[in-house]
Write a structure and sequence with these properties.
With 273 residues, this protein is an alpha+beta fold. It has 2 domains: 98 residues, Phosphorylase Kinase, domain 1; 150 residues, Aminoglycoside phosphotransferase (APH), C-terminal lobe (Aminoglycoside 3'-phosphotransferase, Chain: A, domain 2, Alpha-Beta Complex), CATH 3.90.1200. The strands form 3 sheets. A 5-stranded antiparallel beta sheet has the order 1-2-3-5-4. The longest helix is centred in the middle third of the chain and has 18 residues. It is globular.
């Protein structure tokens, strides 16, 4: 996602959500299963076709995701900084190359917008199973990001997630606020341009029962950028979620050596944007 937050956990995981990450000591978790009853909006109720609507995820800007059988409905209130049409366009493009949620419906009314996707097989890398068996999860995240990089063609990608574009969007979102945006500093030279996931935190990789990556979710910021824009955040999230000692394993599974300068810059950029 493109919210100005340390880490965006998946609003449409395509699978049953993990238990609340705050309960396992993840202090950067800014979204999770709702901790109180959530009213079903009329727009969501109209999509149920008799299936129960279960609120499975809530973010910090008022968005709620509901599970309707084998479908997920991500909803955002009117005026949200999250543009679900942007995410739908990215999912539709990426689906031709790699496993991502299939877009079923996109709509809006005076109260907000909603995006309906088909469920994907697999479990989030922060499912309770993988919180208890961390090494396979970390390896799958690295292998999954490398597979995503290899599958998505840079020349054909119409979406930009480069430094200038991200800073410009952050400035647009903050134009009405009195606070000044933190500056990440001068960017390093580009190492390698790839189509980045855009929110490569651990929860957005799905794993099958054998511990292999099976898909990716929450691609609302997907776009062309230096590969370290993803890797810096992916490795960072292993520390928040699994604890110390897993960053090198993720990079090894991806197939790259650590780069302290680029990692530091893209983490500062993440917090700034």
């Amino acid at each position: 996602m493109t919210d100005p937050a340390p880490c965006e956990f998946p609003d449409d995981p395509g699978v049953d959500p993990p238990r609340n990450l705050r309960e396992v000591g993840v202090d950067r978790a800014v979204a999770g299963p709702p901790d109180r009853p959530v009213a079903v909006p009329a727009a969501v109720a109209a999509l149920t076709d008799g299936a129960p609507a279960e609120a499975v995820w809530a973010n910090q800007v008022g968005g709620v995701t509901f599970r309707l059988g084998e479908r997920f409905v991500k909803g955002q209130p009117a005026g949200s900084v999250i543009d679900l049409a942007d995410e739908a366009a990215r999912l539709a493009w990426a689906a031709a190359f790699t496993p991502v949620p299939r877009v079923l419906t996109l709509g809006s009314d005076d109260e907000g917008a909603w995006l309906v996707t088909a469920a994907l097989p697999g479990r989030s890398a922060v499912d309770s199973r993988w919180l208890a068996d961390r090494a396979p999860a970390v390896r799958a995240i690295g292998e999954g990001l490398r597979a995503l990089r290899d599958a998505l063609p840079v020349p054909a990608c119409p979406f930009d997630w480069g430094v200038a574009a991200r800073l410009a969007r952050a400035d647009e979102r903050g134009s009405g606020s009195s606070g000044a945006r933190a500056q990440p500093g001068e960017p390093p030279d580009v190492d390698r341009l790839v189509v980045c996931h855009g929110d490569a935190c651990a929860p957005n990789t799905l794993l099958d029962d054998d511990g292999r990556w099976s898909g990716h979710v929450d691609l609302g910021a997907l776009g062309v950028a230096d590969r370290w824009a993803d890797l810096a955040v992916a490795t960072w999230s292993t520390e928040w979620i699994y604890g110390p000692g897993f960053q090198d394993a993720l990079l090894e599974a991806y197939g790259v050596e650590a780069d302290g300068e680029r990692t530091g810059y893209y983490r500062r950029l993440w917090d700034a944007t």
